[in-house]
Amino acid sequence: MPFSPKPKPNLPLRPAVLLDTVISLGGVELRPDLSGALYVPDLAALIISDLHLEQGTSLARRGISVPPFDTGITIGLLESVINRWAPQRLIFLGDSFHDDDGERRIEAALMQRLKKIAVAHECFWICGNHDPSPPRHLAGHSADHILLGPLTLRHAPQRLRKAEIEIAGHLHPGCAVAQRGRRVSGKCFIADERRLIMPAFGAYTGALSVFAQPYERLFKREETRAWMIGQERLYKFPFARLC
Amino acid sequence: MTLPGHFQNWFRSKGWQPRPHQLEMLELGRNGQSALLISPTGGGKTLAGFLPTLVELAAPHITAGIHTLYISPLKALAVDIARNLETPIGEMKLPVSIETRTGDTSYAKRQRQRQKPPDVLITTPEQMTLLIADPAAAHLLRNLQCVIIDELHSIVSQKRGVLLSLALSRLRTHAPQARFTGLSATVADPDALRAWLAPVGTPPVPLVLGKAGAPPRIRILDSVERVPWSGHSARYSIPEVYETIKTAKMALLFVNTRSQAELLFQELWNANEDHLPIALHHGSLDVMQRRKVEAAMADGKIKAVVCTSTLDLGIDWGDVDLVVQVGAPKGSSRLLQRIGRANHRLDESSNALLVPSNRFEVLECVAARQAAEEGAQDSEYPMTRKLDVLAQHLIACACSGPFHADALFAEIKSAFTYRTLKRERFDQVLDYVATGGYALKSYERYAKLKQGEDGQWRLAHPQLVLRYKMNMGTIVQNEMMKVRLSSVKMRQGRRTILGGRVIGELEEYFLSQLGVGDTFLFGGEVLRFEGMDEFGALATRAPGREPRVPSYNGGKFPLSTYLAERVRGILADKAQWQSLPPQVRDWLSLQSWASVLPKADEMLVETFPRAEKHYMVCYPFEGRLAQQTLGMLLTRRLERWGAKPLGFVASEYALMVWMVNDLSAMIDQGRISLPKLFDEDMLGDDLEAWLAESNMMKSAFRNCAIIAGLVERNFPGKEKTARQVTVNTDLIFDALRSHQPDHILMRAAWEDAADGLINVERLGAMLKRVKGHILHKALERVSPLAVPVLLEIGRESIQGEAHDALLAEAEAELAAEASRLA
After folding, report:
1. What is the 3-state secondary structure (H, E, C) of B617-663?
2. Looking at domain B5-209, does it have CATH number 2.30.30.40?
3. Pairwise CA distance, residues B395 & B433, whole Å
4. Nearest residue on chain B to A74, judged by CA atoms?
5. CB contact under 8 A, A6 and B735
6. CA of A132, closest CA in chain B: separation in Å?
7. Would the CA dihedral through A121, A122, A128, A130 be positive or negative?
């Protein structure tokens, strides 16, 4: 049989439904999305972590020519999650661009789409380690961290002060479950009573296992739950079930 | 041609006669002609290959560049060959310098080899490729006279062989005077190898045949024990196998997978009342351990070695006089090759014992014995035209210097493996290497290759050379992790694990499924998993504990088409049942009474109800891979036609699908037609739809992406950051599928998957074969022939790509557990 490629129409094929999963943190109701974003109904805010825009061109500069479609895919995913939840505010948890030069490399048409999103919402750009300075051409406020009711939102998780409750990104959490001799892995939200770490949103972002060294001492294991992102919905597991 | 006097004397001093094929090779070599030598092991093959070189270099001479390149697929073999050659060279006082160059050779030694090359360089295919990527290649190879490729039959069926053939085409450009000598075991199609060795457009190289050895004596274990219906452990046979080993001087026990090797070794050890020295040899064990076993074999200190294909190739490590194949041999060429490891005196028969581990394997063993006794071969045809390999070769060429696309294309077309390459495809690959080959041209400014004013392509940055060297090669392994034997210390009441020496490597996939405290077999010991640290896995010894054996995840080698045909023949022909053990004969008689036995050209399909489900079993005998693909496609169809399939299991011989609805009734009422169900048109849209989603395709893509250099395994300087510059290939696959599905690497992956992982060609041939020859039998209950397959169900993990289903199941189990506790 010859090779006859057919494009898969419009990624993602994920069902555009509002999931009914709820994560409660510090008494605030949070609604995780299959894309890895997190909606806060009380504040009409959508939190998105680690977009890593222009990761493709960043690697290409180092001679690794992965396909240059990532920014387009990521922006498409962002548009669809915004449509789904219709938030008033967008909070970007940092590493929105893969490097500080990314904004200069992005294609004009894609930049237009981003600008449209930024103008239509109240945007907050938290700085990350990849993009220490805020975007120059996108509307919104920039910040090191943001207080949202009882929650502190920042890029990289930090040692919690007394009574502090945190939502962070940076680590790109992922986990796996072994079932019937098969191992199924994916990105995940991971949280205990005082901290939640969001999965990375960008099309080329990978996952770092929640067993890796940087997670040590961040969570109380017996309280920790992971919400793993599947094809159709999220699956909730206690830490002890993960591998 | 006669040997020069001092060579004759040397042969005589050894008590040897030069063999006819050695003299024939000498004559061809002295005339500067290429040749293919096919000879059984023990026929003095290596010496035959080297003889022309040694005679040529016997006169005093000044070494001006490498005279002879010897390429061996095994690194360890290179060192042994060099040592073996020292004997004639030393004893005849020939002024010939020999050196080896493998991945282990130090940088200093390699540099010296460039400055002052030896007469004979013994090396591996990968080092050969690195040699032609050297800007000084033309200079180093200017006086090359001879290239010897050992174990050619094994190299040509892998991507390594495809890469090597490209390197050889380059070598021909640098050294048009050189002759090419292939050394091979007996193969099904010698003409393909003869053509492989010659540039396209020239006649195939002449074939020289060594004298065939005495036919082997092959026995199938005729056990007094009951041969099990299914499974792969062959545990029933241990006492009898053990007794047979005792009668041998040294026995090699071949199995097909590492886990079978571990299990067999463990069982033999338990039965080892006489404290026989029995050893274990497989690819996951640490190299030093393997070398130790090989040395002990050479010294005759070992009675038996349990091994996998790691001992298929190579020189003789001792006086083996018995080969035991435990589990099905899968192909007659493979079996003959393994049997050839015993008794290297040509005039004596080798002894072999076949031990089937279940009843179907008894049939396969009988078929394999017949084929082996007739000397019938079923080895694979050489692999050709891999696009990812071509991409890697283009980078290698660019590393050696600027090139014209036209000239390089012509050179590549001269290789047998790329004789059908189209210019359009070549240009696509070149475009991929230069800028990624994307529809979106945003990477032009980051190009790796740039075309100059003179029309030549050159590397854009010298750093790319180092990166190429760190990542070249075609062997993409599963992610492996080191396993270290650790010790446990109690410190302030806390259990602390201290890492110790490395004992080998295991697939990351396997290790990731272990929980702390789980036990598993490795290196013949029961180990307890203690966790991971930054260097890999930690384990402690846990003697006396029951191991959680690694699951049997299918043989690496599918049943050959040739043996499959023979097995079908045996089933159909009662006269041949005489050669079967009584219990297997009874089993088949029972089948013909309870159901039916198909004729050789028929495929039997049985349908029957069992425990409120309905089953369909078919017996194509086409190997697990092809039947797994068939299972995927049949379930899609049955789903569409309303039979509500629930799952399927594929063995090497049969495929079983179970469903909610009564298939017998549906066939009876004409709602489902079997000829339509098995129609070849399933290889159209159904295959494409499934394949695009499948993990097979993703894993094929990952291999191609690594070989073609899209993602890099190693990055200069900072190994720690490798993860940061690597994008998961599944994500790249998704991006390409949605934005550029005709990308050259998607094509490469598709071709690989269709070839190997899913065996489309074989499935197509099978569907064609059974067209109009489907024999349906609706039964009240399971048939004797179907029992083994039915027993596989519990053993196999569920099939398909149902990741979400697995997650949902895991989640639901926890919920159920919680509600019980509440």
Report:
1. EECCCCCHHHHHHHHHHHHHHHHHCCCCEEEEEECCCCEEEEECCCH
2. no
3. 7
4. B735
5. no
6. 18
7. positive
Measured distance CA(B101)–CA(B113) in Å, rounded: 9
Identical fold between B5-209 and B217-374:
yes
- Binding-face residues of B in 386-445 toward A, CB within 8 A: 435-436, 438, 440, 442-443
Cross-chain Cβ contact B728/A72 below 8 Å? no
Residue B208's nearest CA partner among B222, B219, B224, B197 is: B197
B87/B14 Cα distance (integer angstroms): 11
Q: In this predicted structure, what is the pLDDT of residue B232?
A: 79
Beta bridge partners of A46: A39, A90
Contact B737 A8 (CB under 8 A): yes
C-beta atoms of B807 and A241 within 8 A? no
CATH code for the domain defined by A23-241: 3.60.21
pLDDT digits (tens, 9 = 90+) for B605-620: 999 999 888 999 999 9
Strands B120-123 and B68-71: parallel
CA distances from A128 to A101, A170, B509, B687 (A): 14, 8, 33, 44
Q: Which residues neighbour B458 within 8 Å (Cβ) at sequence distance 6 or greater? A: B398, B401, B402, B449, B450, B452
- Residue B804, chain A, CB below 8 Å: the answer is yes
Domain boundaries of chain B, sorted by first residue:
5-209, 217-374, 387-475+695-754, 480-541, 595-693+758-805
pLDDT values of chain A reduced to their tens digit, one per residue, 243 residues: 567 666 554 444 455 678 889 999 999 999 999 999 999 999 999 999 999 999 999 999 888 899 999 999 999 999 999 999 999 999 999 999 999 999 999 999 999 999 999 999 999 999 999 999 999 999 999 999 999 989 999 999 999 999 999 999 999 999 988 776 667 889 999 999 999 999 999 999 988 889 888 898 899 989 999 999 998 899 999 998 888
Stated as kind and residue range, the H or E segment containing B502 is strand B502-507
- Residues of B with Cβ-Cβ distance to A70 under 8 angstroms: 735
Interface contact flag, A237 B814, Cβ < 8 Å: yes
Judge whether B523 is closer than 8 Å to chain A, CB to CB: no
CA gap B640, B802 in Å, rounded? 18
Write down the ipTM of this complex: 0.92
Residue contact B448–A63, C-beta within 8 A: yes
Every domain of chain A and the residues it spans: 23-241
Q: Residue B515: its pLDDT value, please?
A: 67
In the predicted model, residues of chain B with pLDDT beneath 50 are 551-554, 718-723, 796-801
Helix then strand count (H, E) for chain B reads: 33, 27
B688 to chain A: which residues are within 8 Å by CB? Answer: 4, 6
The domain B217-374: what is its CATH number? Answer: 3.40.50.300
Residue of A nearest to B431 (CA): A65
* Cα separation, B443 vs A151, whole angstroms: 42
Q: Which residues pair with B218 in a beta bridge?
A: B352
Spell out which residues of chain B touch residue A55, defining contact as CB-CB under 8 Å. 727
Beta bridge partners of A97: A53
Does B493 touch chain A if contact means CB atoms closer than 8 Å? no
User: Measuring CA to CA, how many Å separate B384 from each of B147, B159, B389?
Assistant: 21, 8, 10
Asked if A7's CB is within 8 angstroms of B741's CB, the reply is: yes
Which tokens is B609 given? 């109800």
Instruction: For chain A, say whether B362 makes contact (Cβ under 8 Å).
Output: no
Per-residue DSSP letter, B329: -
**Which residues, numbered 65 to 124 in chain B, qualify as contacts with chain A under a Cβ-Cβ cut-off of 8 Å?**
none
> What part of B 718-777 touches A (C-beta under 8 Å)?
723, 725-728, 731-732, 734-743, 746-747, 750-751, 754, 760, 764
